[in-house]
Amino acid sequence: MRYVSTRGQAPVLTFEEAMLTGLARDGGLYVPETVPHMPARDIAALAGLSYEEAAFRIMRPFVGDAFTDAEFAAIIERAYAGFDHPARAPLAQLGPNHFLLELFHGPTLAFKDFAMQLIGQLFQASLERSGKRITIVGATSGDTGSAAIEAFRGLDNVDVFILFPEGRVSDVQRRQMTTPSEDNVHALALKGDFDDCQARVKDMFNDFAFRDRVGLSAVNSINWARVLAQVVYYFTSAVSLGAPHRPVRFTVPTGNFGDIFAGHIAQRMGLPIEKLVIATNQNDILHRALTGGAYETHGVTPSISPSMDIQVSSNFERALFEAYGRDGAAVAQQMDALKSQGGFTISQGALQGLRETYASGRASEDETRATIRALHATTGEVLCPHSAVGVKVAQDQPDSAAPMITLATAHAAKFPDAVEEATGLRPPLPARMADLFARSERMTGVENDLAALETLIEERRRA
Ligand SMILES: Cc1ncc(COP(=O)(O)O)c(C=O)c1O
Ligand SMILES: N[C@@H](CCOP(=O)(O)O)C(=O)O
């Protein structure tokens, strides 16, 4: 299995190389050269397997010979051992044809744990073999950062630096990042928004001298392995509702587009997905792009679903690469326009292709609160604001016989203020993190300045 860049100019890599490399050296994102097909009988055979067994069968073809079967199976077992729910990703029923895929039973209470716990294990296995050291620099709007810190804290051969937008993550999210005491972990509060954090991380990858000096690696969905891990729960949930004999639909609360792109990969592998619905909050660039054809950044507006406060949606580049028939030069041109002019127009052909796969919708702040309130009153389910954006957009979709599965991407307890405002109920943290607000915090305030950030990272990382 080989991996190519969405901009067509970077070296072709193996799975392990792509995982450790992060951003391609032409600024693009790695994707598999071909997507392996899973025949209907193999999809049907996933029914009744444990999450770990299904994960092995679904991901194995992407990994090539990087790990033996036994190594890869053991990595998967370790990755999901710390989840609170035996099913890992259970389904709850919200209505006659509407289901909620609960992705918040991992160690940091968000869907990011599914991928981060896996890549934590993959990185460790690979680094133990090579004896290399790496420096991870990640950008977060709240959940990726805590999941990454949880997966990599205390490792001797890894230093982790997480940039988060100062004052724009919830108190729980911030404390999950600032309370770990291990000296390989650094939480950096940046004066700016998530787009600034992500742009600085990509700038660091494009500074080859810095990148090579510190052994830079990515844990954002820049990293293909992050996307791959998220393909699994599309299969497990769809199969439990009758796939491959019955098609399904998914609505995905979307920001950086990694999660929903994983759904597209599942579809390309052969899972019968009728539609993938992009659900956005008021930062609705993806909804505007899909409905109007213009991808234009308007600046990030803080919302009650802060993890989706994103305008430069990194993985949309992977979707464009597919929509443009894998034309790396066309993608590079659009990404240059995004950087220099703040936007671009999607060609009619590409837009049509995107609309065949994706639909979209937007939920306002009031609609999000009303959805949390209504769902709690009618079903007892307490949604986080991101999941509520998904449920609202799913409810707005045209009728179909195919069941709708909405992804619940975080636990309500990560956003207690928004949930309390909507329901009057303050969701408690699980017992294992009940003392989160008693722990002392450690973070560094930083300017949105590439040179200053690189200096800080070089000074703090353990050589
Ligand atoms: C809770 C939550 N929901 C939804 C999203 C959006 O996911 P993606 O960036 O993969 O589109 C994020 C962040 O990425 C998140 O943290
Ligand atoms: N919402 C994310 C943003 C980063 O997304 P990623 O999938 O690229 O890591 C977060 O919580 O940080």
From TrEMBL:
GO terms for molecular function: pyridoxal phosphate binding; threonine synthase activity. Residues 2-80 form the Threonine synthase N-terminal domain. It holds the Pfam family PALP. It catalyses: O-phospho-L-homoserine + H2O = L-threonine + phosphate. Keywords: Amino-acid biosynthesis, Lyase, Pyridoxal phosphate, Threonine biosynthesis. Pathway: Amino-acid biosynthesis; L-threonine biosynthesis; L-threonine from L-aspartate: step 5/5. It is an enzyme of class 4 (lyase). This is Threonine synthase. It comes from Rhodovulum adriaticum (Rhodopseudomonas adriatica). Coiled coil: none annotated. Its EC number is 4.2.3.1. InterPro entries: Ser/Thr_deHydtase_PyrdxlP-BS, Thr_synth_N, Thr_synth_N_sf, Thr_synthase-like, Threonine_Synthase, TrpB-like_PALP, TrpB-like_PALP_sf. The keyword ATP-binding does not apply. Residues 92-333 form the Tryptophan synthase beta chain-like PALP domain.
